[in-house]
Every structure is written in structure tokens, then in C-alpha cells.
Amino acid sequence: TALLSEIRNAILENQFVLYYQPKADLEAAEVCGAEALIRWEHPVRGLLYPDEFLPVIHDHPLSVDLDEWVMRTAIEQWDSWHQQGLNIPISINISARSLLEKDFKDRIQHCLGRFPAINSSALSFEVLETTALEDVHHVGDLMRFCHKLGLEFALDDFGTGYSSLTYLRHLPARMIKIDQSFVRDMLEDRDDMAIVDGILKLTQAFGRDVIAEGVETLEHCQRLYAMGCPKVQGYVIARPIKSEDFPNWVKVVS
Ligand code: G
Ligand code: G
Ligand code: NA
Ligand code: MN
């Protein structure tokens, strides 16, 4: 389609940008990470969000090219912030297609090799739980491979994949991200609260780290903290921030 070639062109023309949403550790009272979220500065249509273009390249080889652009850009960003005195790990979202691509390991090593200054703990990958479940053994193997390089994985939108309980043991992701759909209504909805509580107990039993997504109010923060979930991401901390504004935001909240 026309949009496909427009996207291909937009990668070459550097029309994509990454915004960064902070992750907070309420216990340590610090910013413990930032998730890179892509946007398209379209020359005619203005700023476009992922839901307007990622579905077009779902499962298409272009999504691998875009992921590679994101990886390279996030590493450069980390390096630039590092030079400004910040040391904030960046996570990037990896598409299903990249993950299942045979040369993904080579791409990672190639990318890291081009930036010898980067500490591998500065970068981590987020993978949708539903994607990981498509090929648990392959993705589990990839996670182990990356862990040896020092790169960690997070299982994103956790709780939406239904098979969480049985498959978690085959997926050695360090971090579990509780899907925002459960977090949003947990204070009013007993079922959602039970799911959040269940995920927290599960991650604890499996020795994984956990963060709640889509946290919008202080009340949510207090409740999550009391339940043993001090890590939060969501509008209550900040909306996704432009890369050039990020260092100043960190300075203001620190
Ligand atoms: O803020 P937001 O609208 O950016 O993100 C919507 C969804 O798009 C998120 O659920 C996220 O999984 C996905 N997404 C955001 N940025 C990227 C990216 O750089 N690569 C991939 N593959 N997915 C992304
Ligand atoms: O699926 P993933 O978790 O990668 O995507 C995060 C998405 O959720 C992005 O679209 C981001 O802009 C959005 N988001 C982040 N924090 C909040 C929040 O507190 N509330 C809502 N409604 N959306 C959020
Ligand atoms: Na994601
Ligand atoms: Mn995410």
C-alpha cells in the first residue's frame, strides 16, 4: 500500500521520533527507567501515534527495520543523556516479527558492537506477553541468550495472555509489566484487584521484578506500594516526554 512505502521512506528520512515515559521506584524515590515510545512526525498529517501506523507493518519485514531504527536511536539517546550526567536504563518495545526473525541475535550484537560505550544494562527489551506465547521456547531461548549479554527482558501487558501461569517458567523475563487494563479499575473493581494481587504474588513466587502500568492517581500508587509493588509507570508520574525535555524533567523531580 501507499502507507507502506511512506513508512519505508519515513525511516530513511528520519521522520520517526522516540518519546520517553519515566518509570518510578516509589521505594527508592527515584526514576528507575524510561520506556521509549515511537511517534511519527508526519510532514503533512502532524504527530502520529503508533496505533496509526504500527498495525500497517504488523508482521511485515518493515517492522524489523523500524525496530532496528528504534534500537539504534535509543542507544544513541542513552549515550547522549549519559554525557549529560544521567544514567537511566531505556526499554524498547520489540515487535513479534523481529523476535521470531532468525537473525535477531546478530542484529542485537551488531547494534551493541557499534556503540562500545554503552553498558548493556542500559538497554532492555519489552515483549508483549501475547507475542511471547506465540513461540514460548524460541522466545525463552532468546531471553537466555540476551541475559548472557546483560540485556534484560520485560513481559509487557502481562495478564492479557491467559496462559501466564503455566508459561511463565519457560520465559525467564526479569520484569513483569502488569497491564494497565487491570490497574485502571483496581480500586473499584474487586476482580481487577484480585488479578493485580494474583500477579504480584506470582511474580514474587517466581522471583521476578514487577511494575504496574497505566498508574494515573496517587491513590493507585499508595495502594500498589502497600501491596508490595513500588515500581510504577503512568500519567501520575509523567506522560511520555520528548527526548530533549527528559533530562530537565528528571532534574526537576530529583
Ligand atoms: O504511547 P503509545 O501510544 O505510544 O503506545 C502504544 C503501543 O504501541 C504500545 O502498546 C507499544 O507496545 C507500542 N509501541 C510504542 N512504541 C513502539 C516501538 O518503538 N516499537 C514497537 N514495536 N511498538 C511500540
Ligand atoms: O503497551 P504499552 O505498555 O507498551 O504501551 C503503553 C501505552 O500506554 C502508550 O500508549 C502510553 O502512552 C499509554 N499510557 C502510559 N501511561 C498511561 C496512563 O497512565 N494511562 C493511560 N490511559 N495510558 C497510559
Ligand atoms: Na509495549
Ligand atoms: Mn511497554
**Termini Cα gap:** 47 Å
CATH secondary-structure class: Alpha Beta
Number of strands: 10
What is the number of domains? 1
Which CATH architecture is right?
A: Alpha-Beta Barrel
Work out the helicity level.
40-55%
Radius of gyration: 18 Å
Structural class call reads alpha/beta
Low-confidence stretches: none
Question: CATH homologous superfamily, by name?
Answer: EAL domain
* Number of alpha- plus pi-helical segments: 11
Domain EAL: 1-254
Protein name: Diguanylate cyclase
Question: Could you characterize the architecture of this molecule?
Answer:
The protein has 254 residues and is α/β, with parallel strands linked by helices. It has a single domain, classed as TIM Barrel (Alpha-Beta Barrel). The chain contains eleven helices and ten strands. Strands 1, 2, 3, 4, 5, 6, 7, 8, 9 and 10 form a ten-stranded mixed β-sheet that branches. The radius of gyration is 18 Å and the shape is globular. 34% of the residues are buried. The mean pLDDT is 94. The structure holds guanosine-5'-monophosphate (2 copies), sodium ion and manganese (II) ion. It comes from Hydrogenovibrio marinus. This is Diguanylate cyclase.
Offer a few descriptive terms.
Diguanylate cyclase; binds sodium ion; ten-stranded mixed β-sheet; 10 strands; 11 helices; TIM Barrel; 43% helix; globular; binds manganese (II) ion; binds guanosine-5'-monophosphate; alpha/beta; 22% strand; 254 residues
